[in-house]
From TrEMBL:
UniProt-listed GO biological process terms: methylation
Domain Methyltransferase: 50-141
Pfam families noted in UniProt: Methyltransf_25
Natural source organism: Hymenobacter rigui
InterPro entries assigned: Methyltransf_25 (IPR041698), SAM-dependent_MTases_sf (IPR029063)
PANTHER family documented for this protein: METHYLTRANSFERASE, UBIQUINONE BIOSYNTHESIS O-METHYLTRANSFERASE, MITOCHONDRIAL
GO molecular function: methyltransferase activity
Keywords, alphabetical: Methyltransferase, S-adenosyl-L-methionine, Transferase
UniProt lineage: Bacteria, Pseudomonadati, Bacteroidota, Cytophagia, Cytophagales
Protein's name in the database: Class I SAM-dependent methyltransferase
């Protein structure tokens, strides 16, 4: 599926300013989470893993370093181009839209991490993406979806933030609109021109996710609530981490 020009992620994720804004993300925390998750899931040494929406492949590389055969896919051609410099016989990267069937696999585990879901304008596309992920799994394989705890995220939304990174001042406005958590991103580029991008994540409740899972033929095994893999508490957990079985 070719991305529509109006789809925010088809332009923002390929912008160098996206990577500038988020360059200071806590990757040490992310690696600790991945290490805990692997210990929790117990993949066999020869397991094949899919990093669905892998970005520049930083987490795919870590998974590969643990000895697994890893495939990373992402819609962003620039991100995949950056990731491919690290590719080797057990680490592969491809440009791919999760709304299209996966020509790679089958996989023992599919990992969709760090809120890389719920971007699409039409809700049915979320179910299509899940069905494609399920189809790429071996029988008995597992899918992990790491999403924000939507209810808590809306309650604690910070409406405005100014953030300066490498001489670029980003003006960030957040609000809830038409079933989406929206972040408006405004800044001036090196030429002094005003730039505007958006991030939009559908405010999916646990109940709505469970409806998606039923439609995709996936069984919910457990829900974790944080990157320490604590149990999910709707009132306090920052994340909803779904572990699903085919």
């Amino acid at each position: 599926m070719l991305p529509d020009a109006a789809e925010w992620f088809s332009t923002w994720f390929d912008s160098p300013y996206y990577h500038r804004l988020y360059q200071n993300r806590n990757y040490a925390e992310a690696r600790e989470f991945l290490s805990r998750l692997l210990a929790h899931l117990h993949p066999k040494p020869a397991a094949h893993l899919l990093d669905l929406a892998c970005g520049k492949g930083r987490h795919s590389r870590y998974l590969s370093e643990q000895g697994f055969d890893v495939t990373g896919v992402d819609l962003s051609a620039r991100s995949i181009a950056a990731a491919r410099q690290f590719a080797h016989a057990q680490l592969h990267f491809h440009v791919h839209d999760m709304r299209d069937p996966l020509p790679y696999g089958p996989f023992d585990f599919v990992l969709n991490l760090f809120t890389s879901f719920g971007y699409f304008e039409h809700e049915a596309e979320n179910v299509v993406a899940l069905r494609n992920a399920a189809a790429a799994l071996r029988p008995g394989g597992k899918l992990v979806i790491d999403f924000l705890n939507t209810e808590l995220a809306i309650e604690t939304l910070v409406p405005y933030e100014a953030k300066t990174v490498d001489d670029t001042e980003f003006q960030l406005h957040r609000h809830f609109h038409n079933d989406f958590i929206v972040k408006e991103i405004r800044f001036r580029d090196e030429a002094g021109q005003e730039q505007y991008f958006e991030e939009r994540v559908r405010a999916l409740s646990r109940e709505r996710f469970e409806e998606y899972f039923r439609m995709a033929g996936l069984r919910l095994a457990e829900v974790l609530g944080d990157y320490q893999l604590g149990s999910f508490d709707p009132a306090t957990s920052p994340r909803m981490i779904f572990v699903l079985k085919k």
